[in-house]
Design a protein that fits this description.
- By secondary structure, the chain is mainly beta.
- The chain is built from 6 helices and 48 strands.
- Helices cover about 5% and strands about 55% of the residues.
- The longest helix has 21 residues.
- The protein starts with a helix and ends with a strand.
- It has a 22-stranded antiparallel β-barrel.
């Protein structure tokens, strides 16, 4: 019995012994770099490592042997090499042995420095997120960072940048190198990357009210490429998409002109961008997009709304790269040319290559619901009767970017960026209508009319910036920026009404408006690094803003208008802010900004405060508060027909500087590639101004003209964002609940009760998805808006002013020899929904008897767009 039992046990154990022998760790390497050998061990035998890839690549090993444990394997491989192998849990930590390493704590502190760049092109990656020994910090605009600690000799470094694979390594004290991040969309057939999370569309929760956008995926979203940057920005929560605002960004209930858009450090005032088909920013140049919706720190100023910072590429310093994009709208070309090994010249040019709206040319923008140029029947949209539906008969656009970048040997960087762009828009239309007019016997007589209108507009935007990044030491960095921005807009409107039978002229109104704005600045920003991520930022500079409004014309029944208003504002400023991590959970940022207007003994103090607290590993809350001023802004100009036009002015002795407070709170949850973010805000704005056309009695005379109204406004609401990344796919949805109120009155009169501001919209829902299947990228988005207050006010008879639009696209990515290409098809407004755009509505007063004449220009109709992009 016992012998049978022993035999049974032996028979049972033999397979176990055999399997144990089969699980030996066999290493075969012939003069291979040590880092590659460890990579093979990780793939074949499930090793877990933390080490510096650059350090291990300097050593080669030759071995052909089988080992019986992981510890035995590593002892053999590192025998005689200047490394220590430590085990923490299941992870083997490999630490370089450096002379004097044990003396590092005696020096008071140790540090590491580095620059984060893109692998291949060596393009700096600004504002990358870095985690060093669980201490969070951010790289600066040049991708550089510095971290000091009181005693640590080794550092666990984890670097992430939207659209790039996460870089995770271990470095030692005194370490300085360039960290090369691999783009997530880069084709690397020879390399298999595993166990790396990829940041997809957006990053939220870094700071209160901040969103960082992955510009690499913008080209895969619906659109024809020329406006992919702003298409993606408007899919973010809190940024208004309904109404298809074409030349500004409305953030958290702010008015036009209250949010700042910068490119490479200079201000973008905007272009016409009719129907969202072309943006002022060339997508080829965009490297990083940072959105600050509110509650931003002291180094940012001059706006009471939000800020969109767009950083442009520096250009490839390794090899020439040429990019070309062609679509039914424009031709877009960019060249990156290396010069003198450490510098690069980048040139990009776009232009429309035919008249986009001329029916005689190939025209995808021809309206699917087109009407003849002369027609007598009114048009109905949303139960609103319009007298005429019009479309441009000419639109031209072109712009040019030049950028020279130079990387110095000591880590300093320099660039000069220039931009020039302009567009021309015109519309000429006529309509035959019938109106009732009082006769001599007080009877209503049908009166046939021919109404003609002519509208022209030209816009020009110029920009320049010179940037120098100076690294004084491992602790102190300085950034010098000189910038210039210049904008001009000239528009003319002509409306004429004639009796079609008697040819009597009833009205003949002409108005010409020219608005210019310019900005010059000199800025110095410093970062001083202390221990454990503690940073002090301080700086200052000078701004000069100038604006003009030149208005001339004739209105029926009124004296001719011929006015020129000039505005000038010059100021110096200084700021300081302290970034203080307290342990691993709490981060405090406090600071202040002081502005002093030249020629006035007037100081404007702006305190700022924010805090972020990590409740758990994947859950954190944050809040911020601050005071803000704005010195150049757009003023609403309201004509006789209650049409809104926004013109640039500056604060002066007659126009007060805008002032605001901002309260922002945020809750962020992130785990397993799921992000849920909830933000709440409250923003009161004072010293508001608007210009209203009306008749006033001045010294016994009735005088018509534009008179100032003064008041204040406030907005508040919540944003909810849910984002899920899975595999190679990403989906997100956002919902905004908000309210914007305003009140205005003539000077020295009491303010009325609050009423809805023109841009007020109660609900906005956005849903988007991006799917990568092999070489194909499929995407779609949907935007719903409950309706702008201005539409409800001007068209109270409308049954529905809600906004609905869905877009979709498919892109095929291919590689042929030295050419990387993308062939795509986008469909805008898939369901051909008729949406109202207030920017495309005009109401003209014919006469007091004939009433108003309503002109409507359709929003984006069903529009298929085919495009081709090539990089070689």
């Amino acid at each position: 019995m016992i012998r049978q039992l022993l035999i049974s046990i032996l028979v049972f154990m033999l397979p176990v012994f055999g399997s144990s022998q089969n699980r030996g760790i066999k290493v075969e390497a012939a003069n291979q770099p040590l880092n590659r050998v460890l990579l093979q061990l990780r793939e074949q035998y499930d090793f877990q490592f933390s080490y510096s890839d650059t350090e291990l690549s300097q050593y080669t090993v030759t071995v052909s042997k089988t080992f019986f444990s992981k510890e035995e394997t590593l002892r053999f491989l590192f025998d005689g090499l200047p490394f220590q192998v430590k085990k923490t849990g299941e992870v083997f930590i490999i630490i370089p042995e450096k002379k004097g390493l044990k003396e590092a704590p005696k020096k008071g502190h140790t540090h590491i420095t580095g620059q984060i760049i893109e692998a291949g092109s060596s393009e700096p990656l600004p504002y990358s997120q870095i985690l060093i020994n669980n201490h969070p910090l951010f790289a600066d605009v040049t991708g550089n960072f510095n971290f000091s600690a009181s005693a640590d000799s080794t550092f666990h470094v984890r670097i992430s940048h939207l659209g790039y694979y996460i870089f995770d390594t271990l470095v030692y004290a005194g370490f300085s190198k360039k960290f090369r991040l691999i783009p997530a969309t880069l084709t690397l057939p020879e390399v298999l990357v595993r166990n790396n999370d990829v940041e997809r569309a957006t990053m939220v929760g870094e700071k209160p009210g901040k969103i960082t956008i992955n510009s690499n995926i913008a080209r895969f979203l619906p659109g024809q490429g020329d406006n992919s940057v702003f298409n993606q920005i408007r899919l973010m929560p809190g940024i208004q998409a309904a109404g298809e605002q074409s030349n500004d960004v409305l953030i958290w209930g702010s008015y036009e002109g209250q949010s700042l858009i910068t490119f490479d450090g200079f201000t973008l005032f905007g272009l016409k961008n009719y129907n969202d088909n072309i943006s002022v920013v060339n997508p080829f140049l965009v490297k990083n997009i940072e959105i600050l919706k509110g509650g931003f720190e002291a180094k940012y100023g001059d706006r009471v709304g939000g800020i969109v910072n767009i950083t442009g590429k520096n250009g490839n310093t390794k090899k020439p790269v040429f990019s070309l994009n062609i679509n039914p709208t424009t031709i877009n070309a960019m060249a990156e040319i290396p010069l003198f090994k450490k510098s690069s010249l980048l040139v990009a040019y776009r232009q429309t290559y035919y008249n986009l709206y001329n029916s005689g040319d190939f025209n995808i923008f021809a309206p699917t619901r087109s009407l003849p140029k002369n027609h007598g029947n009114s048009v109905n949209h949303h139960s609103i009767a319009f007298d005429m539906e019009v479309f441009p008969n000419d639109y031209q656009f072109r712009d040019l970017n030049l950028k020279y970048s130079f990387n110095l040997n000591n880590g300093d960087q320099f660039y000069v960026s220039l931009y020039g762009g302009g567009d021309h828009f015109s519309m000429d239309a006529a309509a035959n209508i019938v109106r009732e007019m009082n006769g001599k016997s007080m009877m209503m007589n049908p009166t046939p009319l021919t109404v003609s209108l002519l509208n022209k507009e030209e816009n020009w935007q110029l920009g320049f910036s010179a940037f120098y990044h100076k690294k004084w030491s491992d602790r102190l960095l300085t950034k010098f920026v000189v910038s210039h921005s210049d904008f001009s807009k000239t528009s003319s409107d002509s409306v004429q009404s004639v009796n079609s039978t008697t040819y009597n002229l009833y009205s003949n109104e002409r108005m010409r408006t020219r608005n210019t704005a310019s900005e010059n600045s000199l800025r110095i920003e410093n970062i001083l690094n202390f221990l454990n991520g503690h940073q002090l930022e301080f700086g200052g500079g000078f701004y000069s803003n100038e604006a003009k409004i030149d208005l001339s014309g004739n209105l029926t029944g009124n004296l001719p208008i011929n006015t020129l208003d000039q505005y000038l504002n010059q100021r110096g400023y200084a700021y300081v802010q302290d970034y203080l991590p307290l342990g691993d959970r709490l981060i405090l940022k406090s600071g202040a900004r002081i502005n002093r207007i030249t020629g006035k003994n007037q100081m404007m103090f702006e305190p700022r405060l924010s805090a972020t607290y990590k409740l758990a590993e994947n859950l954190k809350i944050s809040a911020s508060w601050g005071q803000y001023h704005q010195f150049i802004f757009k003023v609403p100009t309201i004509d006789m027909g209650q049409n809104y036009t926004y013109l640039w002015i500056t604060g002066n002795q007659n126009i007060p500087v805008l002032k605001a407070a901002q309260w922002v709170s945020e809750i962020n949850y992130s785990e397993n590639n799921l992000t849920i973010n909830l933000q709440a805000y409250y923003k009161p704005i004072g010293n508001m101004t608007e210009r209203v056309y009306e008749q006033r009695v001045v010294k016994g005379h009735n005088l018509s003209g534009y008179y100032p109204y003064f008041g204040d406004a406030k907005s508040f609401g919540i944003d909810l964002l849910a984002k899920k990344d899975f595999g190679k796919h990403s989906v997100w949805a956002s919902y905004t609940l908000s309210k914007s109120l305003e009140r205005f009155a003539p000077q020295n009169q009491s303010l009325p009760d609050y009423s809805l501001a023109p841009q007020d919209q109660r609900h906005e829902l956005k849903v988007a998805g991006l799917f990568n299947i092999g070489h194909f990228y499929l995407s779609a988005n949907y935007v719903y808006g409950s309706g702008l207050a201005i539409l409800k006010k001007v068209f109270p008879d409308a049954t529905n002013v809600a906004y609905n639009r869905a877009d979709a696209s498919a892109t095929y990515k291919f590689t042929h020899k030295q050419i990387n290409g993308e062939l795509g098809l986008s469909v805008l407004n898939v369901f051909d929904t008729q949406n109202l755009r207030y920017a495309n509505l005009k109401i003209f007063r014919l006469t007091s008897d004939l009433g108003d004449f309503r002109v409507y220009s359709s929003s984006v109709p069903f529009t298929p767009v085919l495009f081709l992009k090539m990089v070689f």
